[in-house]
Specification:
Structural class: mainly beta
Strand content: 35-45%
Helix content: 10-25%
Distance between the termini: 16 Å
Number of strands: 10
Strand order of the largest sheet: 1-2-3-6-7-8-9
Shape: globular
Number of helices: 3
Order of helices and strands: EEEEHEEEEEEHH
Largest sheet: 7 strands, mixed, barrel
């Protein structure tokens, strides 16, 4: 399954069959290399929170597990970001931008590779975010991110969605080597990306965005 350029889809993170977050994205390209998505400033989103409105990162994981949850609609609060999901790879590469919309850094999001779905009027791609990440600066120096969260959640394996932490870290180390060598996609590709000025970001997630996950 491939998505047509310009199509608006839903990029979702799934945890044990529940939607953890969803973001409206536009397809920039979809080919043998992978799926390239654009998340515009203030794009419609949804995020899983507790009944009183707190997200998972705001409390210990064991407390989160005891709470009941709901999905809260909102808007992407970060800068515009380009997301590349390489075909079959257990990571994605995000191209973050600064306040002036210039390339700032790469962000390697370690995740189970995306599974696509298409219901006709609404389509998307579901991933399982594995929490551990790598930040790669323009000079290709790097550091791990969210190691504490990763370790905290691994301590509760019966409730965590990462069955093989060694494989997650190994995937990160593999991508780090690509970055250090300046290999694609860390070779300057897409760093000067400019979104189509005719793209209009919808005001809300489309009906059906919360359909059951395919993961």
């Amino acid at each position: 399954m491939r998505f047509a350029r310009d199509r608006v889809i839903v990029h979702r993170n799934v945890r044990h069959g529940r939607i953890g977050w969803a973001r409206l994205a536009r397809v920039v390209s979809d080919d043998e290399r992978g799926l390239l998505l654009w998340i515009a400033r203030a794009a419609p989103t949804a995020v899983e929170v507790t009944e009183d409105g707190h997200d998972m990162r705001s409390m210990p994981f064991t407390e989160w597990l005891r709470r009941s949850h709901r999905l809260r609609l909102g808007a992407w609060s970060g800068p515009p970001v380009l997301k590349f999901l390489p075909t079959g790879a257990n990571h994605s590469v995000w191209f973050f931008r600064d306040a002036r919309d210039r390339f700032a850094n790469w962000y390697v999001n370690l995740e189970e590779h995306g599974v696509r779905w298409d219901d006709g009027a609404v389509a998307g791609v579901d991933v399982v975010d594995q929490d551990l990440d790598v930040v790669i600066r323009p000079d290709r120096t790097w550091h791990w991110k969210d190691e504490d969260e990763f370790a905290e959640r691994l301590a509760v394996p019966e409730h965590y969605w990462v069955p093989d932490p060694a494989a997650v870290r190994a995937e990160g180390e593999r991508v780090i080597k690509l970055a250090e060598a300046g290999e694609f996609p860390f070779d300057g590709t897409w760093c000067d990306f400019v979104p189509d000025p005719n793209w209009v970001t919808p005001a809300a997630l489309p009906p059906g965005w919360d359909r059951p996950p395919v993961r």
